[in-house]
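Exercise 7.
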Amino acid sequence: LSPCGRMAPGGKSTGGTMAADTSNAVRDLVIYSVFVRNHTAEGTFRAVIPDLPRIRSLGTDVVWLMPIHPIGEARRKGTLGSPYAIRDYRAVNPEYGTLDDLRALVDAIHANGMRCIIDVVYNHTSPDSALLSQHPEYFYHKPDGSTGNRVGDWSDIVDLDYSNHDLWDYQIQTLCQWAQIVDGFRCDVASFVPVDFWVRARREVERVHPGCLWLAETVHRSFGAACRAAGMYCARDTEAFEAFDAEYSYDVQEAFDRYLEGRIPLSCYLDLLDFQESVYPQNYDKLRFLENHDLPRIAPRVGGPRALENFTAMLYFLKGTTLVYAGQEVASEHRPSLFDRDPIDWEGGRDLSALMARMARVKREALDADDAFFSSADDGADVAVLRRESHGVRKVGAFCLGGKGATVDVPLPDGAYENLVDGGTARVSDGRLVLDGSPVVVLAEVEPEGV
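Solution. The predicted structure, written as tokens, is:
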């Protein structure tokens, strides 16, 4: 596999801002996250292939494979170790199969009309990684000269040191190799790796595979602030957008968690979504999720099946790329272990697949990627009223997050509307919408409002 070119002198990015080329259409995407070890009973690349038509039927555009590489044995957590403690960036985990097996899976993903991205874990490796044995100078060293990590509870990894610019070449060459097989990268704790590195990597990969998708796992606000206070490098979300097409919405996750715990009203969380509209670049894209492999499952955190339907429908209505974590579509309550064999129970919960498929169509066909976004909340009724608007069309979503009926103010002319969620009728009278506890999404043609 051919490598990429070398970095710019001094390790600084050259040329224009790469993310300026990001299309707003990235917001239309639905990404489905697969942990190969736990997705099937077999836990292999090829075992995922028969499930791809079902995954596609959910409205999925992109399959994200969590790390596919061999896992370190030194200081391993659990019986099989975390996939984020990588032993060799340039090989595949033999427990999952061979490189040819991976190629077969990617080919099948493409044949089912989807793209494939893989995890890139470039902040750290396992303590027994091939890279450490070959290039110890690429790693962070503590004052006593030993390798280690800057985040204490990540005991099964050692950190890389990006002040060594030869490391940049190695990592970018590796990305270029994988870009000949896959369609993009989800970059683990991307905030800890210099933005200039990512900008350079993006440009070099573009020569190998034009149009690769770049997704950054940025970090929670409090964690980022604590890391910077401790003297660590941690890019802010506004800085990371220079290199990435989409970023995690961890900047508002802590508020969402506090809302679920009853510590703040819904309006406080929604205000932060409005704030994102004002602070990020015009083509910003935030990954919207209810759960992922680092978070608890959403089903047990909300007030029952009706509430879960509303949270699920709202997820697709939010402006940004939608993430589905495997098992979410069956309302799984068990969070699979990262460290052991822990297959998903596909029979244990309520099937939300039909709702997700409908909302994926609403997202793609009724919502526009360049919509303006507005939010309001009826805190007493625990109802989110969201509005998206462009080109004289207003899209309004009303979501009963408490799972109960309510009557709420909506920014719509009086009349009868088709509810795009279930095909029923939603009626607005005197600017008020009566909700029976089910999610509602309607469209209306409106005159542009003056300012």
